[in-house]
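Appendix B, record 7
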Amino acid sequence: MDTSDQLTIEEEKDVALESKSIKDYFSDFYKLEQIIKSSVESPYQHNYPLYKAIDILYKSGTIDYGLTQELNAIRKYRNSVVHGSNPIISKHALENLKKVKSILENYIDKPAD
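Structure tokens (predicted):
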């Protein structure tokens, strides 16, 4: 096997990892979006855009300013991946999404004082 074959195999591994990262990212993003929207919507309300649902959670005191900023950064990152020309998900972005999703779940599940 020559060097060009090894590079091809390595490149294929990178593509497979990128595909898995993209799939994992969008799966987790969808779950995050569902948590947010289900927290502000009822069967009688319309489907809020994500930015509006985040704003409602903040203005109602359900989430704090820091979490609001994190959620908006994730939303903007997702939009840049979807609408950009280079759909690559960084390991940091995937880890941050998982962390923020977990934090949000704790905020939403927290009983009122």
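Remarks on this record: Residues 61 and 94 are 27 Å apart (CA to CA). The chain is about 75% helix and 0% strand.
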